[in-house]
Design goal:
The structure is a homodimer of 413-residue chains. Chain A is 37% helix and 14% strand. The first copy, chain A, has 413 residues and is of the alpha/beta class. In chain A, strand 8, helix 9 and strand 9 form a beta-alpha-beta unit. Chain A has 13 helices and 15 strands. Chain A has a seven-stranded mixed β-sheet with strand order 4-10-9-8-7-5-6, with helices on both faces. Chain A folds into two domains: 147 residues, Aspartate Aminotransferase, domain 1; 227 residues, 3-Layer(aba) Sandwich (Aspartate Aminotransferase, domain 2), CATH 3.40.640.10. At the A-B interface, helix 2, helix 3, helix 5, helix 6 and helix 10 of A face helix 2, helix 3, helix 5, helix 6 and helix 10 of B.
Amino acid sequence: MYGLSRDDCERLDREDPLGTLRGRFELPSGLIYLDGNSLGALPVGARQRLDELVRVQWGEDLIRSWNRHDWIGMPRRIGAKIARLIGARDDEVIAADSTSINLFKLLAAALRLRPRRRIIVSERTNFPTDLYIIEGLIELLGQGHELRLVHADELSDALDEKVAVLVMTQVDYRSGRLHDLAALTRQAQAKGVLTLWDLSHSAGAMPIELNAAGVDMAVGCGYKYLNGGPGAPAYLFIARRHLRDAQPTIAGWMGHAAPFTFAPDYRPAAGIERHLVGTPPVLGLAALEVGVDLLLEADLQLVREKSRRLGDLYLRLLDQECAAFGFEHACPHDSTRRGSQVAVRHPQGYAIIQALIVEGVIGDFRAPDILRFGLAPLYLRYVDIWDAVAALHRVMASQAWNKPEFKRKATVT
Amino acid sequence: MYGLSRDDCERLDREDPLGTLRGRFELPSGLIYLDGNSLGALPVGARQRLDELVRVQWGEDLIRSWNRHDWIGMPRRIGAKIARLIGARDDEVIAADSTSINLFKLLAAALRLRPRRRIIVSERTNFPTDLYIIEGLIELLGQGHELRLVHADELSDALDEKVAVLVMTQVDYRSGRLHDLAALTRQAQAKGVLTLWDLSHSAGAMPIELNAAGVDMAVGCGYKYLNGGPGAPAYLFIARRHLRDAQPTIAGWMGHAAPFTFAPDYRPAAGIERHLVGTPPVLGLAALEVGVDLLLEADLQLVREKSRRLGDLYLRLLDQECAAFGFEHACPHDSTRRGSQVAVRHPQGYAIIQALIVEGVIGDFRAPDILRFGLAPLYLRYVDIWDAVAALHRVMASQAWNKPEFKRKATVT
C-alpha cells in the first residue's frame, strides 16, 4: 500500500485555497487543536473589538451606545449574518440566549402551531441537552405531550400524523454522523410534522440550506465552528411563513413591538424579534460577530470540501500508522455522511486523550470509549493531521497513556 | 432660606467615606452620568480582565480553560459573591441568563410549588417586562392562572389564600419608590403566598436582607448598580428551604447533576445549579465579576446613606435653583422610601433630557413626562449633583430644550 508522508500533507497545505485563513486566528504555538467543535479558536480582531467595545462604547459612551454603536441592533444584525451561513433570509434569524434556551422557546412555539398533535420525535442519541429540554418542556406544560425516541434509521417510520415536531441535531456530537436534513425534512413535511434542527455541530463547517430544504425552525451554537468565544450567544431561525403565527414563548421586553414605550401590555414584535427576551448580551455578541464575519469570508463549499478531506486523511493515517493498537472507527467512512469531526473507539480512550494533551494534541473524550477529534477547516492544516496521528502513534507505542494520573475521573473536556 | 452652594457640595465630597471609590471607575471627563441605573459605569480592571480572558484563556488555553481557569465554576462563584450583596447564602444564588429569563424560570418553579393556587399578584406599575413575562407564562401554561394587578397601596389586601405568588420589583423603575420588602414578604407568608422579588433597581445601591426577610425567590440584573457591563448576565436566588423542591423550568445540561457524563436522562443537580440551563456566557460573567468584586469592597450601609443624601441634595437644589420652571417631584420625598434615583415631572421632559445631554448631563426620560436621574453612590460626587442641577437651570433659563431636534421620537435612552 502506498503510504502517505508528511511531505504529502505539506503539499496539500500549499495547494489549500483556504490556507491563508489560518493566519486570521491567534493559535498557540506547539499545539494541535482538534477541539474546535467544542470551543472555536480566537479570531484575530476579537481582542481589539472587545477592547474598543469596553473602553469606548461602555466606558465613554455608556448608555448612549445603544443607539450610537447600535447595540440594540446586534441580535438582528448578527442574526442576518448567520442567516447567510445557513441558507436563511436575513429576517429569519436572531442571535440571542443559549442554544438550550432557544430550543425551549422554539419547541414550545412549534407545539402551539400543532395544537392537536402530541408526539415529539427525536433521535435516541441526540445531544443530551436537547433531550432534556424536550422532556422538561413536556413536564412543564403538562398537556400530555410525549417524546418518541428512535434510532436514526427508524426516523422516517416514526413520523406520522400524530407527530407535532421532529427535533434533530444535524451532526451527531459523538459519532459525527451527518443526517440528511433535506430528506428528513421532506419526510416530516409530508406528514405535516414541523422540523426543528439543531445546527450546533454543523453550521460554519459546511453549507446549510434551510430554506431550500423547507426547514421550519432551527437553533445553533455560537462558540463552536462560528468561533464566537466561550459561552457565546446562540441563534434561532424561524422560516418566514411561520413568523406571524409563531408565538413568543418567553415574552420579554426585547420582543415587544415597541420596547421603549414601556407599555403595560405585551404586544409582540411583527417579525423574528419577538423571540428576543431580555437585554442583549453585548460583550458576547461583539465577539460572536467577529467570528461570523471571518467565516463569511470563506467559501463554505470549499470549507466543506476541506473538512471532508481532513477527515479522510485522519482515518487513512490512523489505519496506516496505528493499525496495531486496536482502534475502531466510530464515525462514518463515507465523508459525505460525516460532519467535520472523526471519532474512534478504544477501551483506553480516556487515558489516551489525556496522554495526547501532554503531546500537544487536544481532542476530547466521550463516554464510554470514544475519542473525538474536531476538524475546523478554517485553521487546521493537513500537516496538523499528520502530526496528530504521529503523536497518537507515540502515545500508543510508548504506552504513555498507561499512567495513574490519566485514570478516568469526572472532568470537563 | 439658607441656600446650599457648590462649596458646600465640595465639602461633602471631602468628607465622603466612599469618595475614593470614584477613582476605581473609568469615567469620561466632562460628563455627569446620572444613568447608572440603566447601565453602570466601567470599573477599572474590567478591560484588563477581559483582555487576559480573551488572549490567554480563550486564545491559548482554549477548551482547557473550563477547568484551568474555572469557567465552569463562574455561575456559582459569582452567584456566591452576589449573595453577599443581597443577604443570601452562597448556595442560594447563581449568575445566569437574563433577568427576564430568570423571572420566567423562577415564576414557573414557584407556581409548581403552589399547585392549588391560581392567582399571581403584582403591582400595576411594575417594570413592564416583568408583567409581560408573567402574562406570557400564564398563556403558555394554559392552566387557568390569573394575574391580579393592583396599586402598590392595595397589595396587602390583594394577598389571600388563592394567591400563589407575589411578584414585586423592590424599587419602581420610574418613580423610584422603594417598597417595604420585609413587610410585604411577611404579609405574603402569612397567607402562604410565595414571594418573588426583582432586585434589578435596588441591589448594589442598598443593603438587602433576603433571608432575614424570609424571601422565597428573587432575580436581578447585572448591568445596573452591579456595573457588570452592557447586557451582563443576571442572577437568581432561591431560599435554601426550597432548593430541594423547586424544579428547573428549562432543563438544560448545565443544570444536570453530572453534565459531562452526557447521560440521556435528565437528573437535576441537587442545589441551585439545577436552574442553570446552557453553557455559561464566559465573557459577560468575567466583566460582571469585576463589577461585583468592586462593590464588595464598599460598605453597603454607607452606600445607602450616600444614595439617600445624593437624592435629598438633588431635590433640595432643584427646589432652590429651578423653582420657576414648573418641575414637580415624582419620587418620594422621604429618602427612606426612595431607591437610588430621583424622578421629576415636566411636560417638556423629553426635550429637557435631550438638551441636558448637550450640556454633558445624562439622565433619562420615561413616558409620559418623567425625568429620571440615577444616583450611583460608588462613583457620583455631591458636586456632580450641584453641576447637574446647574445645567438644568441653564437649559431651562435659556430655553435650550426648545429646539426642533429635541422633539420626541421613538428612541432608546
